[in-house]
Each structure stands twice: as structure tokens, then as C-alpha cells.
């Protein structure tokens, strides 16, 4: 068994939480929906439902093929929903789009040994905290990451770059998105952190590492990270999942959710993430 904690909040400036998370051994994922209020929430929930079905199989040998199939199922649900919406409205002819990121880990086995199967589409992230060191495992699919890779800006500049919200890969926005995978052998005593970009937009790596090192409970660690991000003035939704590696002790995971109140009359969220194929908002 693993221990885990989940915390999510609309943030300081949003009225609707378009993030979603799923945590049930052996599957742990976060998703950041985009497209404006109901569409973003629909997209992230489509990912959650697809991974919920994957976890329900109860297999200890989930691989990349099964994860890829879950992502394609979520993408098909998003596209189908948007097609139905377009057929109903036919109002101003404006093209509507919805999509979502996903980042997570699946606890699986390889040659009889426990491994994390890490997955990512978009700019939500997977970190590994082991031996006091925080390491980003996933690589963002974003314009600023491409600029960092090209050497035109550094990681510090990327945090505040005006186009940091432009992502280059998402689920549901077009052809099926390719999922990036990594296999990490589970290390005793390590922690896995999953988060949407609302967390790393407010807290730097040193701050995150300090919380993960000092707060023993994964439930409290997730809630503490969330609290620090929100009280810091988070302009985006924030979702955090902390997963502790399996050991002899076992405990059920706990979820804390503090969603924002919906406002049906508002326009799309300000400073929202720009989806692939969209113009900058």
C-alpha cells in the first residue's frame, strides 16, 4: 500500500476550479482543464474518469499501452462533447475548443520489482523527492520549455515569461496527443509530487522541497503546499498530490478539496492557458 494526500483549490483569482485529480492505488494523476469554465472542468474530469476506469481493473502490471488507451479515451470524450455543444449552439460561428493536461504516476512492476510509470501531456508536472533532493521528472510541453531547451531563456526567466501559459501539447484539442513516459524504480522513503502549474507558478523548488522534507504526512504536505500557494496569491487553480513510496506501514489516502464557487455569467478565466492551435488570449 502507498500513502497519499490530495489538495485542490480554485486559487485566489478564479471562481471555478478547472483542475481535477485522481488518487487510488495504483493510479495517481492531476489534470488542468482549459477552454473556459465548464469546458475546462469537463475536460479534466474526462481524464479523471478514464484513469478511474484504469485503476478499477486492479492490475499491478499497468503499462504504457493501457495508459495511452486511457488518454485516447479521454480525448475522444472531450471531442465528442465539444462536437455536441457546437451542434446545439450554432450561434455565432465561433470555434470552441477544450483540452486538458495530465501528469501522473502508475505504481507497476517490472521483472518483479516495483516501478513508477511516469506519464505527462502538457505542463502539469511530476517531481521526485528523494534523499533531500527535489528532481523534476516530467518535461513541460510548453513554448517557454522549448525556449529553455534552445538556450534563448533560462529556467528563472521562464517562470515569469509573458508567454509561459502557452502549451504545445494537450488532450482533446486535435489529433491524439503523444504521451511521454519514464520508468523509475521505486526507492524506499521517497516521495512523488504531482501538481498543476498553479503550484509552481507560486512556489519555487526550494520552497517545495522544504515542505516535502519537513511535513511527514503526505496529506498534510499536500495541504501545506496548497495553502502556501493560495496565500501567496495564486492566480490559477492549484492541485497537489503527494504520494509516499510503499513501505511496511499502510494507510488510506485522504483528499481535501476546496473548489471555487461557479459563476455561470463570467467569461473565460483571465490569463488562462493557451491551448495548441489557439491564439494568445
Quick description:
This protein has 281 residues and is of the alpha+beta class. It has helices spanning 37-56, 64-89, 143-150, 155-160, 197-200, 205-214, 218-231; strands at 3-9, 19-24, 27-34, 99-100, 102-110, 113-121, 125-130, 133-136, 180-185, 191-195, 238-244, 254-258.
Characteristic key phrases:
single chain; 281 residues; alpha+beta; six-stranded mixed beta sheet; six-stranded antiparallel beta sheet; 7 helices; 12 strands; globular
What do these coordinates show?
- This protein is α+β, with helices and mostly antiparallel strands and 281 residues long.
- The radius of gyration is 18 Å and the shape is globular.
- It has seven helices and twelve strands.
- The strands form two sheets. It has a six-stranded mixed β-sheet with strand order 8-7-10-11-1-12. Strands 2, 3, 4, 5, 6 and 9 form a six-stranded antiparallel β-sheet that branches.
- The termini are far apart.
